[in-house]
Amino acid sequence: MPSPHPIPCRAEILRNEKVAPEVYWLELGLGGHFPPPYPGQFVLLRVLNAWEPFLLRPMSIFAFETSRRGSRMEVLYRVVGRGTRILASRCIGEPLDLIGPLGRGFQAGGGRPRILIGGGMGVAPLVFLASRPEPEDVLILGCRSTSEFPVDFVRERVRVPVRVCTEDGSCGVTGVAPEMAEALAAQCEWKVEVIAGGPPAMLAVVARLCEDRDVPCQVTLEARMACGTGSCLGCAIPTRPPGLYRRACTEGPVFEAREIRWEALP
Amino acid sequence: MKSPDLAVHWGPLRLSNPLVLSSGTHGMGEDGPRLFPPEILGAIVSKTVTVDPREGNPPPRVAETPCGMLNSIGLPNPGIDAYERDVHPRLVSLGVPVIVSIAGFTRDEYRTLAARVDRLESVAGIEVNVSCPNVERGGMVAGASPGETLAVLEAVTGETDRAVVAKLTPNVTDIVEIGQAAMEGGARMLSVINTLVGMSVDVDRRCSNLGVMTGGLSGPAIHPVGLANLWKLAKATGAPVLGGGGVVSAEGALAYLIAGASAVGIGTATFVDPFAPVHILEGIADYLERHEFASVTEVIGSLAETQADLSFPEEAC
Q1: Mean pLDDT rounded to a whole number for chain A
Q2: Is B67 a catalytic residue?
């Protein structure tokens, strides 16, 4: 499936709303010419139209819709540093420059029931994926606590069955997403496919579970990057065999889990 | 009024305009720049190729800094065999003069690479990278010593009659001395500046923001450094010098030309503004029209210079 050719684009901020203490829901109007992205692809946002902060911020696509009036893209982001803090201060009606859609998204599977596993903000691209659900999809949503993640907000936006677990028991089952996924997969005798996004430590556990049971597993990874288009070679993801790297922006951000050298991720 | 002529001469090369896409800012060269039409460029410099394939440094490889970025990419490239077979034909197909950038870890490797590139077709020039800050041997180590720079350039020019450009590092005490050594070694042109060695620390985790501690600084933050190095070098050596470092606008490019650059390098700007080369060329043309120059060559070296007087008045000492 060839990825659409990315374009630089000036979007309009339609919404930039706080949905949890440090989590924001950004909605952008894009006009009609923006190439429709595949789930798992991302965009680079220029948080200010200036040379400072210098680099654009890579963001997963949370939702995308095209209508006669143009396209609308949503991004879910957490304020983690200077760039996202500035982004959170941007107002409705303001222009926001971006480049996209970028990267290689989720690949079509082999027809097995899919377990989507989202750890915290890593759920964002899975919500986009679940907007085109397959019949037996289940989404497992794990986070530390409802006090820092908008569980209900995400759950309401997903059309597939959602199972929630929290580390502090504030919602759903008390526990972590890989444990819940393991139990669910076992019920299906591991005849499933797994697609996961979240912190690298969680993804490494999921990858190991899947590899042990020979279950196909795709993961979406984050990396610090500059250009997003394969030019700077900055977003290196360590892949097997040792010594090899792939670009998160071009060969990824979605990878086969068994390709990744988890121990070498920063 | 006729639109101004943007063509320049950089040593023996005639370029349709002064903008040269720097090495290492367009991937391995397999795709070329993806978001702007490459044919607008004056020339393109390949990703530096080494004798053997290299995977590059462990991540993280990039970190944002005030008005710029650090990189510690570490010269990943497929090696000269794959370059010759796969990359070079694609770069040539872009329809822009191709300058092949080479780096060895010994003089012999530079010699081998020069001989291999000499055999290729459609090579506008060979850039000798003696300035990469992200490898342990060769690279900047060679370019920091006039003697080693001379030896490397002699090794390269002994193998080829093609136009050889030495890309120099600003991480030296006196760049003029290095530039003179490169010209004495047979370089026909010079190029400044490669990135400046820099570092960034994550204070929460108390570690470097790069996987290999230090990296090379680029972006608008280094423009004044590149400009000063270019001016000194062009003035002192009289060599045709490409000036680059931190060019993100037409003004930034014009500053290099006015200070004496024969051509202008652009790279990091394209990471954050993919159409930067388009905007810069339009801006240069606008400037020339506004100031009634018929050709960009009229502004090259047109800098008004004041008499430097660095002596202290006696009573102040």
Answers
A1: 95
A2: no
